[in-house]
Amino acid sequence: MVPWRQSASLILLANRQVNNSHGKSLFDYSTLLLKRSPKMRFAPDISAFPGGKLDPCDLSMEWPKYLSSSINIDRFSKKNADIYKDIDHPYPGLVFRLCAIRETFEETGLLLVKSHTSSNSHYSTILNLPNNIIEQWRDKIRHDASQFIVMCKEIQIEPDVNSLFEWCQYLAAAVAKVRFDTIFYIAALSNTHSYSIAHDDHETVSADWLGPDIAMNGYHKNSINFLPPQVYELSRLANFRKLSNLIEYLSKCKNNSEHQIKRMLGVCYKIPEAMIIVMPGDEYYPLDASFTTPILSSNKTLKDFDSKIQNRLVMMNKGDNRKWEIHCKDGNENRENQLDVKPLTDGWEKL
């Protein structure tokens, strides 16, 4: 039993032709962002990737039985993410993928399903059903998550768990009001037509496809609100202007037996000028950092916190447009883990 809540999130990407109303993007793909309801206890009015908390039904052994005849179920037994080590289940990689797909369907009406080409493709397929059928099942699943497998069996479909790539894992820093440990997956859609997104009017009130640069420009102009993980991960996606290059990278990670998804826990420093969240690898990251590490207060200046190696987010305490900014310096250009993708620092979205 862990002292935090567990969840899964899906960074859903699609060819940029899905969106053409937000200006010219530097990227050939867009990502789906949902605006959370202002009535939500956790992260009200925040735009985020689809996802939600783990439900006991995601651990049901009915799922391996249902899916084992069509997929290599054993590949999901690997504990190649820290979050997988925290649950007692023979296929933890399956459990959290099911959670991400189910939550995405609840929040958007988009259901990633296995097609006859899925096993030979890095792209996902969206189930095409009449809107009234989709809404009936969304309502059922929203009230009882165990209805997800009932739906799959009844309409004879399989969630496309194979198309989800592991991307990163966050344990919310002490500054968060609710502490979630979340694994983020990436899935890419091959189709270029516009997908109909039906926000649920419960947890989410709007949805949009935005290029990473368009999204970050909106954040800096105060038209979109993000939490630190979204700022950090959009800045990591910025390393890949083309969707094909990102998929190539994700495939290398998938095929590398030594690649691990490590839990990232940010540690907060409160100084007179700013709030700083230092991430693993930063010179100021405490060696004994843990879930119980509180917000650390210091009288040091921002200049005092300067270092050769930085991996942090900074928000100034004063100003009209206070936003999280990425500060990232890597003192080792030939670092051992060549699959480690660092965020680009602020300004990349305007290049």
What does this entry look like structurally?
With 351 residues, this protein is an alpha+beta fold. The chain has helices spanning 62-67, 92-108, 131-143, 147-154, 212-220, 228-237, 243-255; strands at 5-15, 29-36, 47-48, 51-53, 112-113, 123-126, 165-171, 180-189, 204-210, 263-265, 267-270, 274-278, 296-297, 310-316, 325-329. The chain has two domains: 5-255, Nucleoside Triphosphate Pyrophosphohydrolase (Alpha-Beta Complex), CATH 3.90.79; 266-335 and 342-346, no CATH class. The strands form two sheets. Strands 1, 2, 3, 4, 5, 6, 7, 8, 9 and 10 form a ten-stranded mixed sheet that branches. Strands 13-11-12-14-15 form a five-stranded mixed sheet, covered by helices on one side. Helix 2 crosses helix 3 (131-143) and helix 5 (212-220) crosses helix 6 (228-237). It is globular, with a radius of gyration of 20 Å. The chain is 22% helix and 23% strand. It has seven helices and 15 strands.
Summarize the structure.
GO terms for molecular function: hydrolase activity, acting on acid anhydrides, in phosphorus-containing anhydrides; metal ion binding. This protein is an alpha+beta fold and 351 residues long.
Topology:
Layout: E1 5-15, E2 29-36, E3 47-48, E4 51-53, H1 62-67, H2 92-108, E5 112-113, E6 123-126, H3 131-143, H4 147-154, E7 165-171, E8 180-189, E9 204-210, H5 212-220, H6 228-237, H7 243-255, E10 263-265, E11 267-270, E12 274-278, E13 296-297, E14 310-316, E15 325-329
Parallel strand pairs: 1-8, 6-8, 7-10, 11-13
Antiparallel strand pairs: 1-2, 1-4, 2-3, 2-9, 5-6, 7-8, 11-12, 12-14, 14-15
Helix pairs in contact: 2-3, 5-6
